[in-house]
Amino acid sequence: MGRQPRWATAARGVLLTVACLAVIVPFVAVVMTSLAPQRDISARGGLVLFTSEPSLAAYRAVLSGGVVTRALSVSVAVTAVGTVLSLACTIMLAYALSRPGSLLHKPILLVTLFTLLFNPGMIPMYLIVKQLGLIDNLAALILPVVVNAFNVIVMRSFFLELPSELTESAKIDGAGELRILTFIVLPLSKAVVAVVGLFYAVAYWNAFFSALLYLPSPEKWPLQLVLRTFVVNQTPLGTDELSASTESLPPQASIQMAILVMSVIPILIIYPFIQKHFSKGLLIGAVKG
Amino acid sequence: MSSGIKVRPGAGADPGAPAACEPRVRGQLATRWHRDRMLLVLAIPGVIVLVVFHYLPLLGNVIAFQDYQPFLGIRGSDFVGLSNFSVILDGDPEFLNALVNTLIITMVQVLFVFPLPIALALVLNSMLNERAKRLTQSILYLPHFLSWVIVVALFQQMLGNGGMLNEWLRSADLGTFQIIGVPELFKLLITSQVIWKDTGWSTIIFLAALSKVDLNLYEAAAIDRAGPLRQLWHVTLPAIRPVIVLLLILRLGDSLTVGFEQILLQQGPVGAQASEVLDTYVYNNGIIGGNWGVSAAVGLVKGIVGVVLVLGANRLAHAMGERGVYSK
Amino acid sequence: MDALSRRTLLKGLSAAAVAGAAGSALGCSAKTTTGTSGRIGADILPTFAQAGNAEPALKSAHPLGMSGYFEYPPNPVAAVSTPPLSGGQISALTYTFDPVAPGKSDNPLWQEVDKRLGGKLDITYAPAADYAQRFATTVAGGDLPDLVSIYGSVQQLPALLKAKFTDLTEYLSGDAIKDYPNLAGLSTDSWRKTVYGNALWGVPIARVPIPGVAWIRADLVAGSGLPAQPKDIGEFKALLKGLTNERKSRWACGDPGGTLTMITAALGIPGNWIEDGGKFASNIELEAYEKALADTRELADAGVFHPDGLVASNNQRNDWFTNGTTPIVFGGYAGWSKYEMWGAEVPGFKLGSLAMFGYDASSKPLHPRGSAAQAFTAVTQAEPGRIREVLRVLDWLAAPFGSSEYLLRSFGIERQTFRFEGRDPIVNSRGQNLRLVPFGYVCGPTQAIYDPGRRDVAQARFDYQEAALPILAPDPTQGLYSQTDAAKGLQLGKDLTDARNGILAGRAPVSSWKAAVTKWRNGGGDQIRAEYEQAFSEAGPK
Known about the structure:
Chain A is an all-alpha fold. Helices cover 66% and strands 0% of the residues of chain A. Chain C: It comes from Kribbella turkmenica.
C-alpha cells in the first residue's frame, strides 16, 4: 500500500489511541466494579476504577445454583444452530436474488425488503408461534428470526459485486446454480459470510424477549433472559425482606457488572476467529487466475 | 487507473444486461422458468419464513383500526375507524415538535454519524501493522454490547455534573463542563453516545467490503505513482461505494426511528421540548397505557413512510448512477 | 419486598420502568388504591380473622400493621392439617422480583412443597418488569393456567375478569372465608383491591401500605451540628442547606421529586385523590401543592440537590447515599435491611430515618400511602369443585409466619437448605437459590417483621411502622375502577412529571404549574374524576 507521510501516521496513531482510551477506561471500570467489594463501591458511589482486593464473589453468586450454567448451554446451542440455519437460508435467498432480471426477481426482492419496514405486532406473532405449536420449544427462538432482510440485502450486494464472468464461464462449463454457489461464490465471499454470521450470532446471543414470550418454562430460558432477572428486578439473589441469611452478599453493582462481563466474554472469545475473515485483504486476483 | 473500474464489474454489468434482454424474454415464461427455477428453489426457505413470520402476523395489524383487547381477540374487539391514528394525525403541536426533533436528529446522524465508521474503516484499512489493526478494531467494537441503560449510566458517571470529570474540575476550581441535563445540548449528547457505542461495530461491514479490494490494484496504482489520496479515491472508495449507498438508503427508510430507549432513559431532566421524538411521543401518548391499536396504527404509518423514503432514495441513487437496493 | 417500594426504590433498567418511575420512592404519583373510608365493598369483603397463633414480640396497634418477631417461633406446626390436593396438578402464571429459581426437577424444596400439597403446583413466571407483555400474550393466546396474577395496570380489567376468571364472592365473602382460615388473615384493605363491580375477583398479595422512607445518614448529620429531626419546614430547609457543600461534592439529597413529596406530606396533602362529600379533587389541583412546589424550587435554586439528581436511577441515588455524597435518600420501606447491608462496610455508617413533620405548628402531617395489595391472583373459570381445590392451595400458600408451611416455603428443608442457629433459621447458599420459586407472588400470608440476628433493625422497622400507620394519607379510590385512569393514568402522570421536572430544574416558573394542571384536566383528569365520583356513589351503602 505504499509509503505514507509521517504526519499522517502520527495523526492516525493519536486519533486511534484517544478513541481506544475512550472505550477502555469505561470498560476497565466495568470489570473492576465487577471484582470490587462493597467497601470500594460504597466509597466511590458507583463505578470503581481500581480495587485493592479483587474478588470473584459476584461471579460465584451468579453462577451458584446451576441456573446460569444451564442457561449458558441453551444460549450456546440456540446461537450455534440458529446461526447455521440463518446463514444457510440467507445465503440461498441472497444468491437467488443476485441475478437481476431472473424470474420473479423483483417481487421476491421487494417482499424481502418490506419486512424491514413493517413490523408485525407482538400479539399476532405470539399467536402464529402458538398456532405452529412452538410454545415452550427452543425452535421458537430461532424460526421466527431465521431470515433477517437486512442481512439478506447486505449479502446480496456483496454477491452482486462478484465478477459476473466467473459465473458465466462456469455456466458455460455446465455447472448448476448450486455448484456455482458452493464452489465459486461462497469461497469468494468469506468476508461477508463472516460478517453476516456475526450479525446473526450476536442477535441470537442477545435475544431475550422472544424467550420471555414463547418459553413459559424458566428452565429453558437462554442466558440473557436469566441474567436479566438479576438486573431488571434488582434484587441480589433473594435478599427478600424475609431473608434469614446473615452472610453478606456481594454488592449489587458488582453483580450487574459481572453479568455484563459474562455476557460479553463469549463474543470476545469467538470474535478473533471471525475477524480474520474480514479484516484482511483478499487477493481476488490470485483466485481469478 | 482504468483498472479501478474492474473492481466492481458486477455493478457495471447487471443493470445493462438484463434490461436489454428483458423485453425479448418476457413472453418466454417457459424459458425463464427453465433458466431460473433453481434460483427459485433456493429462495423458497427464506421466502416461506418471511411470509409465515412477517406477512401472516402483519395481517394482525388490522387491530390498528380496533379498540383491541387481548381477551376479546381480533374478532371480538370493536372497530373504531381511524381513531388510533389520531395520536399522529391530529396535528398536535407537541407531536409536530417531536417530529421536528426526530428529523433533526436523523439529519445530524446521517451527516455526522453515518460517515464515521466509513472513515474509521478506511483508517484501519490503511494500517500496515496487522496486529495493531485487529487489536484496535477489537477494542472499538466493544461498546456495541453494552445496553443503553449502561451507556447512559457510564456517560453520567464520567461526564455528569456530579461525575468524575466535573468533580475533578470543581476541586481544581476550573468551573464545570455541563452537557448532561442541558436541553440545548441534548441532541449533541445523544449523538456522541451513538458515536461512542456503535462506530466501531459499524466498521465491520465496511471492512468486509474493503477486504475484497484486489491488492494488485494498489500495486498498480503505486507503480502509476498515485499518492495515498488518489489510491483512496480510485481504488478503495469504488469498492465500498455500493455498500455505502445501500446502507444509506436503508437508514433513510428508517428516518422516523431514532434511539427510542436511549432517549426515553434521558428525557427526565431536559424535558419534552428538547427531547421528545416520534417514538417516545407515541409511547408516552398511547402505548404506555397498553393501547395495542395505537401501536399498530403508528407502525403502519411509519412503514408506509419508510417505503416511500426507500423507493425515493433508491430512485435518487439510480439517478446518480448507483445501483441502490434494487435495480431499475 | 413490596412491589411499589422495590419498583420505585430500585428501578431504572427497562425502558418501561423508566417511564413508570414518575413518582419518587415516597410515592408522589404512585397509584394508591386503598383507603380508610371502608365503604367500598363493605358488604362482600371477607371477615377478618387472625391467622396462626405465633405470639409476636412486637404487636402492631394498627389493623394493617405487621407483627414483629425476634426469633422464629419454636416447634412450628402445620397450619393446614390435610393436604389440599389429592393428586392432580395446579398451574399458575405469576411475576417475580427475584432471579430465576432452579426448575422443579433440580429443586428439592419445590418437590417437598408438592409433596405436602398432595399434588403438583406448576408455576411459570416472568420478571415483574416484563409481566405486562407476558400477561397480554397469554390472555390473547387463550390457554390460561388455573391461577393468573393480575399485576400492574390492565386495560378493561372488569370486563376481562368477567370474561375469563371466576367471581369468588360466594366462596370468600363474609364468613365463607372461614373455609380458608389463612386467607382470612389477610388485611381487609388488601381485599379491597380485588373488588370490581361489587364482586371479589381474586386473592390479594397483601402488603403493609407504607411505600417509602426518607433515610438519613445519622452519622453525617451528627457531625454537622444540625437537628437530625426537623420539626417544621424551616428546620427541614436548614437541614438540607446545612448538609450541602458543593465544593466537597456533597449535596443534601439526590431526589428533588422525593423532597417535594416530603413537603406535600408536611402540608397534609395526600398522594392522589381527595374525597369530600362525594366530590373528588386531585392533590395536584390544590393551592398548597403549588406552595410545596415553590418550596422545593427554592431548595433547588439553593443547590441542595445533586446536579444529576433528576437523571439518576434510584440505584445511583442509593450509591450516593452509602458513599455520603447525598446524606438523604428516599427509598423503599421494605429495603430497610438492605440499606443496613450496604452501609455495613462503610466506616461509621449509621442509618436513620426522618419522621414526618408538620409544615408549621398548625399543620397536621401525613405519611404517603402505598397499596395494601401488590397484586392479586385470579382464578380461571372452572367448575365449583375445582375452584375450591385451587383456593385450598392458595390457603396453604398463605400459611402464616410461625407455621411449618411458612418455614418450608421461605427457608426450605432443615439441614438441606437451612439450619437453626439458636431460634433463627439460617439459609445456606444452596437454599438461597432453591427458595427463589415465586410462591409468594401466587399467594402469601400477611408479612412479618423479622430480621434474624438484628433485633435493633426489627425494632426500628416496627417503630417506623407504628408511627406511620396512624397518619397514613387517606385514599378514597380504593376499590374503585376508572377505565380512563387505567388507559391514560400513566401518560397523564408522565406529563405532570415533565412539568414538575421543568420547574424543579429551573426551566419553567412555578406559575407554569397551573397550565400543566389544566392540560391534565382536559387530557383526561376530569374524566377520571367523573368516573371515580360515579363509581364512588354507586359503591356506597345501599
